[in-house]
Structures are given as structure tokens and as C-alpha cells.
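Workshop exercise sheet. Pairs work together: one partner reads the sequence aloud, the other fills in the structure field after running the prediction. Swap roles for the next sheet.
Pair: D.N. / O.F.
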Amino acid sequence: MIAIYFTATAIDLPPPQQKLDSPNNNSTSLLDNPQPILVTPPSFSPPDTQEPVPTGTSTVPFFPRHLLFPERANPPEEYQLLGLGVRTVSFLSIQVYVVGIYIATQDIASFQASLIRHIAGDGASTLVAGEKDKLRAELYDPEKGEALWSAVLKESGARTLVRIVPTRNTDFGHLRDAWVRGLTARAQKDRTGYGDEGFAQAVGEFKKVFQKGEVPKGRELVLVREGKGNLEVWIEGKGIRKRLGVVGDERVARSIWLGYLAGKTVSSEEARKSVVEGVMEFVERPVGTVEAQVHV
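Structure field:
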């Protein structure tokens, strides 16, 4: 089994600041197609027009169902929430951050087609009951899930992003070190795929992206995996996003994504379950017909 995971003994916890809520495992189905929004500093009581998605914690209570990400292209690209959850550590389930996985709306069809092809073969446009059961089982299987997600991320060319909002004050060092431990562990376990000098250099580039800096509670950090797999890192400033840096080796972003999506232990089981439900809604509808409909 190859997976990225974080344990209570492998992360330094920032000092506690307040009592936090327990994770909420209840899910909600959002079937409407809300208006996309530009992400600004988080509001704890967002207006109804934003169609906020409950996160299960009062510290960061909502995530946007859709967001417009300011890529180099103009206008910005619309992204749709695939799933979200709270990241916790230790047996006390101390909340660290809320994480949401988004996919570019224009890339949903290619993402959908890749998933369906891996389960039903070429020519299929949707999955039937037995095939959906097979897909769900593979997504939760430690080894098959990693292989499936790895292939889909590489083959579909779908642009995806990971949006992180801390539930307590933290800094670049805490977040970076946890990801780097996962990248290092992957290189040690799979020397053929990740043990080369190129990957080591890419991990070094990733470290340099995160220089000294704070990530206050409620502030947004975004990791973007573009179509060819390169990683961009953005931090929310005073109402705007600032790009911290870029890592060109697609294996870095893919490895970080797998830490949330695949393996026996993931960074947030809540988020994985939410993403799986979003995926299942995609594949039960014909390729190219998916509208804004996911479970979160």
C-alpha cells in the first residue's frame, strides 16, 4: 500500500486557542446551480446569494459551492466543489483546517469520462448499478484507489484545486512539513516512481514556496493542480490572492492530492467520503450532461 498520511505523532500542533466543534458527519445534497462567487476573506455569516455549503464546524462554517479562480486567463475559471471535510489530528480529534476539493467546471466531462472508462471500458458514457458499486469499492480500496486516482489525475487533464482554511492560527512551516513528510515517505516506498533526483529537486522547490509566514484562522490557502499537473500555491491577502510559487513536477501535486483521496489512512476521512459521493453523482449521469449536482 502506498499512501500519504499524517499521524498525531508526525505533526506539531499549534497552541490551542479555543474550544472547537466536533466534526459533523452528516451530508447534504445540493442540487441547485448557484451563481459563482469570487472568493473574498471568509464571512462567518455569508449572504444567501452565495449558496454556502456547511462544513460541520462553527470556526469555519461555510465553503463556497462554486468559486472563480483568478488564473492567468481572463475571465477567471469557474471551479465546482467536489467534496469537503475537516482535517483533525490526535485521538482527541483536534481540528486543524477545513479542506475542500474543487474541479474546473469545464473539465468535469473529461474527468467523468476517465473514471467511467477505467470501470466500464471504452465506449461507455455512464455507469450502471453494478459498475457504480465496483467504482465505489475501488475508491475506498487502499491500493486500487490510489492507482485509479493517480491514473485519472494524469489522463483526464482536469484542473483541480485544494482549498484549505485553518480552524486555528497556524503557519507555513506546520502545513509544509506535514506535506513534505508525505512526499518523502512516498519516495522511500516507491523508489522507481519517485526515488529519482528530479523528484527530490521538486520537493526542494516545494519547500522553498513556503517561506516564513502565518496562516491565520479563517484565512484561505489554495493549492492548484493545472491541466499538465504543475502546482501553484496561493495565499489569501487582504481581499486578494497572492501566488507564492510554482512547482513543475506533476508528481508533487499528484502525491499531495492522493493524501486526501486514497489509501488506508487519509488526511481527512470526512473529505474523502464527501468526494466519493460527489464522484458517484458524476458517473451516474451521461458524460457531458453533468450540471451542478454534488453531495457534500
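Discussion prompt: The mean pLDDT is 82. What would you look at next?
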